[in-house]
Amino acid sequence: MANKQFDNHLGIVGWLGGGRWGVERYLYILHRLTGLGLLLFLLMHIFASSVRMYGPESWGVAMAILKNPVFKLGEFCVFVIFAFHALNGIRLIFIELGLAVGRAEEPVYPYKSSLNNQRPLMVVAMVLVAILIVAGGYNTFFGSH
Amino acid sequence: MEKETEKANSITVYIRRFDPEKDSAPRQQQYTLQVEKGMTVLDGLHMIKQTQDPTINFRFSCRMGVCGSCGMMINGVPALSCNTQILDVTTTALTLAPLPNFKLIKDLVADLVPMFGVLKGLQLHIRRNDVEEMEKPTYEYYQTPHQLEEFLQFTYCIKCGCCMAACPTMATDREYPGPAPLAQAYRYNADSRDDARDARGDLVAASHGIFSCHYAGECSNVCPKGVDPARAIQLMKKDLVLSYFGLAKHKCAHLHKKPDKSTYKAKIEAPPHTV
Question: Which of B111, B134, B160 is the last residue of a domain?
Fold first, then answer.
C-alpha cells in the first residue's frame, strides 16, 4: 500500500488558497507575488532601455509608445508593488531578526502567539503602504510633470 | 444562540475519501449527521463510521488533544478532530480532509513518517561534550527558572503535523524541514544544558532550511498546543545571525556541584522516623 500513496502537497495552490488563513499569510503570498512583479518590471525595463542601442530614432519611437496612458497606469502599478514589497520587506527583516516576535512564554488558553506581538508593526507598515500609494497615485496622475 | 446549540442539529458532512487500491485521486463523499452540543469532530466521525459507513478511515488515539494523531483539515483549517467541537465550527456543513503537504495513506490518514524522519535527523536531544557525564551522570546540570522559560513553550509540541499542513513554504518546497522540526531544533538550541548549537544550526541553516521561512505565521495560528513555531523559527534565525557574526552569548550550563554529604547539614531537620 505504501507505494500507492497519493501525493497531497498543495504546490502553488498552497500559496493562493487551500484554507482559511490569517492576514500574515496573505501578506506572505502578496510579498512573493509582488517580488515576481518587480522582477518582471526589471526585465521589461532592461528591454526598454536597451532600445537605445539601435539609435536615437528607435529610442524616440520607444519613448512615444511609453507615453501611452496604459503605461502610465503600469507605472503606478509598479509603484504600488514597490511600496508594498519594500515596507513589508522591512517588517519581515525586523521579524526575521527576532526583533518583533517577543520572548517565549507559557502557553495559556486562549493562546496568544508572536503574531500578536508583531501586529502593531504590521499595521504601521500597511498604513505607510496606503499613504505611499495615495501619494504616489496623486503624483503619477495629477503631478505637474 | 444557546437554544440553537442545545437541540440536535442536522448538518452535512463532506469527507475526502481515498482508497489507494481503487482510486487514482481523492474524491468527496457526503453524509448527514445529527450533531449535539459538545460533540467533537472525532465523535462525529465515529458516529458516521458506526451508523452509516464502516469503511471510513481516520486515525486517533488519546481523544483528548495529547497524542497528536487525529490532525485533519476541518473546514479548511488544520486542527485536531478530538479538540474541535462541531458546533464551534459550523451549524450547516462540515468539510473534512486529510492534512495536506504530507502523502496520503487512506481517506483522512496522512503519512507523518517523513516529518518524524526530519525530527530524528536534527538530533533533538541534549548533546554535550562531556560524554562521560552524559553516559554515567553523577549529578544534575544547573538551570535557572529563567533559562527554562527560554524553551519551555516549545516543549509542548505533540508532532501532530497541523503546522506543516498550514505552512505555505511546505506546500512548494519539499526539502524544507517544516515548522515543527525547526521549532524543536530551537527548543534544544535554547536549552542552556545543550552544547550542540553550532552542529544543529548548520543542519537547519542549509539550503532550503530555516531561512526559507518568511513568517506567514499560520503555523502558530493553527497550533493546538500554543507552541508558536513561528516565534521559535524567528528566534533561531536571530541566534544563527548572531553566531555568524560571532556575537552569540550562549554559555553551556555547568554541572551542579554535588554536595558533600559528610559536611552537608539540612537547614530544616526532617522529622524523626515513626516506624
Answer: B111
